[in-house]
Amino acid sequence: MGKFITFEGIEGCGKSTQIQLLAEWLTSIGKSVVLTREPGGTELGEQIRALLKGGCAGEIFSSKAELLLFEASRAQHVEGKILPALARGDDVLCDRFFDSSIVYQGVARKIFRADVAFLNNFATDGLLPDLTIIVDITPEESVERLLKRGDQLDRIERESVKFFGDVRNGYLSIAEGDPRFLLVEGNQNVSDIQDEIRKEYGARFM
Ligand SMILES: Nc1ncnc2c1ncn2[C@@H]1O[C@H](COP(=O)(O)OP(=O)(O)OP(=O)(O)O)[C@@H](O)[C@H]1O
Ligand SMILES: [Mg+2]
C-alpha cells in the first residue's frame, strides 16, 4: 500500500504550493504519486466542486446540503481514485480531506460534530490518512494573501475573518495530541516549510 497524505489549513495558507513541491520531490526519488484534491478529484467530484465554489444563482446553501455535497464528492473520490491508487502502491497526496468537513462544517458552521463524523466515516468507509499536514497561518494573513492574489473571491473565500478564525482554531484543536497530524508554521519561507514536510515524510515512511 502507498501512503495517504492530506493537506489542511485555512484559505491561502500554502496547501497547494506545498503539496506540489512534495509531489515533485517524491517523484524525483522514484515514487509513484497521485496528486488530487477535495472537493474534486473525479469527474463527479469536479462538478460538485464547481457548485460549491460558484454557488447556484446566489441561493444560500443550507449547511446540511453543503456538507452532503462535500461528502458525495468524497465518497466518489475514495472509491474511484484514492483506494485504487493506494492499492497499486502509489502515494496519494490530497489537497483537503475529511478534516476540512470537521472544521468548516462542524466547528465553523456548527453542525453537530457527531453527525459530521458519521458522514465522514460513511463517505470514506473509515479510510484514515497516514499523515495530515496542517499549514497554520492567522486569518489576517489569509485575507492579506487572498487580496494579494487578486482573483475574484469564491463563495467560501468571501466568509468573514471571524469564520476563518473559527476554522483555524478548529484545526488547532483537532491536531492537539493526535500523532496523525504535523502542524507547520505557514508564515515561513516556502522552502523552509517544505523541508519540514520532507523531513517528516522521511522520518515516518522511509
Ligand atoms: N510561505 C509562504 N509565504 C508567503 N506567501 C505564500 C507562502 N506560501 C504560499 N504563498 C502565497 O499565498 C497564496 C496562497 O498559496 P496557495 O495557493 O498555495 O494556498 P492554498 O492553501 O492552496 O490556498 P486555497 O485554500 O485558496 O487553495 C499564493 O499566492 C502563494 O504564492
Ligand atoms: Mg489551494
Structure commentary:
By secondary structure, this protein is of the alpha/beta class. The chain has one domain (4-205): Rossmann fold (3-Layer(aba) Sandwich). Helix content is 57%, strand content 13%. The protein is built from eight helices and five strands. The protein has helices at residues 15-28, 43-54, 63-88, 98-108, 113-124, 139-149, 161-175, 190-205, and strands at 4-8, 33-37, 91-95, 131-136, 181-185. A five-stranded parallel beta sheet has the order 2-3-1-4-5, sandwiched between helices. Helix 3 packs parallel to helix 5. The protein binds adenosine-5'-triphosphate and magnesium ion. Magnesium ion is lined by residues 15-16, 95.
